[in-house]
Amino acid sequence: MGLTIAQKIIKNHMVDDGAGLPRLNSDGVPEVGEDVAIRIDQTLTQDATGTMAYLEFETMGIPRVRTELSVAYIDHNTLQSGFENADDHRFIQSMAAKYGLYFSRPGNGICHQVHLERFAVPGKTLIGSDSHTPTAGGIGMLAMGAGGLDVAVAMGGGAYHITMPKMYKVNLTGKLRPFVTAKDVSLEILRILSVKGGVGNIIEWGGAGVKTLSVPERATITNMGAELGATTSIFPADEATKEFLAAQGRGDAFKPLASDEDAIYDRIIDIDLASLEPMIACPHSPDNVVKVSEVAGTKVDQVCVGSCTNSSLLDMLKVAAMLRGKTINSTVSLSISPGSKQVLRMLSDMGALSDIIASGARILECSCGPCIGMGFSPNSGGVSLRTFNRNFEGRSGTKDANVYLVSPETAVASALMGFITNPLDLCEVETVYNESGTEKEKPNISLEDSLSSIVMPDRFTIDDSAVIPPLPEEEAADVEILRGPNIKEFPKGKPIEDSIEAELTLKVGDNITTDHIMPAGSKILPYRSNIPHLSQYCFEVCDATFPERAKAAGSSIIVGGSNYGQGSSREHAALVPLYLGVRAVVAKSFARIHVANLINAGIIPLTFENPDDYDRIFQGDTLVIDGILEGMDIGTVKLIDESKGIEIDLACDFTERQREILKSGGLLPYIAKLS
Ligand code: MIC
Ligand code: SF4
Fold it and tell me: What is the pTM of this model?
């Protein structure tokens, strides 16, 4: 049988790192559900997760990174309202110099956008300490988000372990209509699959419609595969990929990549691009998707264009074309954050920046900015329309704001009108028929003409002056690591004990995000290397009393619903609970990266064998989990709720390697034992 793109890459990168090889099918591909160790060609970190990842890397005692390429980006913590972020940037820069990494300076852009432009290579593997690392899947890379510790291990040459996913295919036909965009495709698939529909799957995008999408458009789609909970998303590498790489002056990196004709998929979803309409994700979840026309007319206070989802040159040129000669509505504040220095510079050279400035928009620097609550928070109870990928409650920095996710076209149309506007309503579209009788859209206004004239440039402006290449080994050895006073020791896990007796200190519902567990935002993000300080804010969105209660309890257990820990890759959502004494998390199901982070930190994740048992236990109950060591071998363990006098079966189904990690007290001590 033929193979999918992802299966081909996994097959090429499978290694035996001592944990044993997975069971393979007759095509030499791991069976679904098997633990697979993958050799990692490239890694990336960003600053908000990077400080911790490099502190962890340091403890491994490896003299130089062992990947083909590793890049340390500074893009999240760029609002420097105190010494903390600047100190962390210097720390990361000195780590990059000492250990052989590329360093992308603050201002050079958002890691995923820059990586796509300058480093991503079809057919290679990439892990990044950021959940949107799959953006590079737009170029045909097997790119996955991971916790900082997993990235540190990969930098040291260690394999990355995944549970072999199922293969989903989205079969694209047709061509997007004007004003309907790749973002609308992302929102449509979220509407179909939901924020947990991708868990345990790799989503491959194929079909005749693929060739109508440019690489940055594909990257918008693979970027938001993170919101589906997918292991990753990937496109073939074809002519469009070749042209993109050539335009980036990296033609040599091209390698064609396609699935075999007879590849087998576990599920195929058909999307006709031509039939799509502008879509919008309503508060407070990326899968709360409806057509823009259904909420059109809602008054808007703020509009933000940017983030790793929608900040490419093509996106920004379209925004500029729509704004040209117009002034944004007087009741709306519009921010524009170009994704990279390359994008900003080209916008400036092409004159488009001037159109944006003239419209009254506020130009922010090339970084994550408002997407992670780093400035530009909405007004109280405000409505904010964002081209971003997450609209979780409170993430914008304003607790009672209502954040909607849209395409740049919908964002600009709404900024001009002052209320949610379907961009299609900005122009009258005439339907005409071509000679063969097939329907063809022929919009009749000049705005549309100017949008369709925006095409991929033959050559991007290439200027890597804000990327500092690795130092030669001889010089690197003398580099001094610069540490600020905000860097504190991180908590270390303890080998799992046979019995846990602890209070159920917090019970939460379904789809709890890492933004609930360990919020971000401008006030808290500077403390990513200071776990004691960070711990005050743990679960602040759900229950601000949790940190104090957990500390008082000493040992505690958290209970969650389904898809617990969805969203980001931040390992702080495991390290901070560890610091507060959390020993186990019991949930209906977990998100992929978070469950790995819990195990890596030494916290045991357990699932209800019968999800209805979730309703039988309550916050404040005293829980006992006995016989854990044997339970890990047989895959099940009993939880006794002493307060209610009931017993509940929990699944504790781990791979051999995960069991060993938990028995060692986390991934770091496990690695230390191996070496
Ligand atoms: C996010 O979008 O939530 C972040 C901030 O980029 C995170 C990483 C972090 O928390 O630092 C992510 O997506 O992994
Ligand atoms: Fe940055 Fe937002 Fe992308 Fe996360 S989702 S990497 S915060 S732009």
Answer: 0.96
> Please, are residues 49 and 134 in contact by the beta-carbon 8 Å criterion?
no
Torsion of CA 551, 554, 560, 564, to 10 degrees: 70
Most ligand 1 atoms within 8 A of CB, residue of 570, 575, 593, 594 to mutate: 570
| Residue located nearest, by CA, to atom 12 of ligand 1 | 568
Strand partners, 201: 166
Side chain identity at residue 543, one-letter code: D
pLDDT in tens, 216-236: 999 999 999 999 999 999 999
Query: Which among 132, 365, 403 is the best mutation to test ligand 2's pocket, defined by most ligand atoms within 8 Å of the CB?
Result: 132
* CA separation, residue 12 to residues 40, 150, 203 (Å): 11, 20, 19
**250-259 long-range contacts, CB within 8 A, separation 24+:** 250/118, 253/121, 253/122, 254/122, 255/121, 255/122, 255/123, 255/140, 256/122, 257/5, 257/8, 257/122, 257/123, 257/140, 258/5, 259/2, 259/3, 259/4, 259/5, 259/8, 259/169, 259/204, 259/206
Which pair of structure tokens corresponds to residue 138?
């737009």
Query: What letter would DSSP give residue 585?
Result: E
- The closest residue, in CA terms, to atom 4 on ligand 1 is 568
Q: The sheet that has 166-173: what strands, in order across it?
A: 232-234, 201-206, 166-173, 267-272
What was the pLDDT predicted at 451? 78
370 dihedral zone (left: phi>0; alpha: psi -120 to 50; beta): alpha
Of 670, 642, 641, 644, the C-alpha closest to 655 is 670
For ligand 1, which residues put their CB under 6 angstroms from it? 48-49, 76, 130-132, 145, 372, 520, 567-570
Write phi, then psi, for 623 (nearest 5 degrees). Answer: -115, 145
CA distances from 432 to 69, 176, 442, 470 (A): 51, 16, 6, 56
Nearest Cα residue to atom 6 of ligand 1:
130
* Ligand 2 atom index nearest CA of 390: 5
Ligand 1 atom index nearest CA of 49:
11
Q: What confidence tens digit (pLDDT) does each residue in 315-348 have?
A: 999 999 999 999 999 999 999 999 999 999 999 9
DSSP assignment, residue 554?
A: S
Whole-number Å distance, alpha carbon 75 to ligand 2 midpoint, is 9
Beta carbons of 102 and 108 less than 8 angstroms apart: no
Task: Decide if 122 contacts 212 (C-beta within 8 A).
Answer: no
Total number of residues shown for the chain: 675
What is the amino acid identity at position 675?
A: S
Would you state the structure tokens that stand for residue 448, as one six-digit string?
């549309």
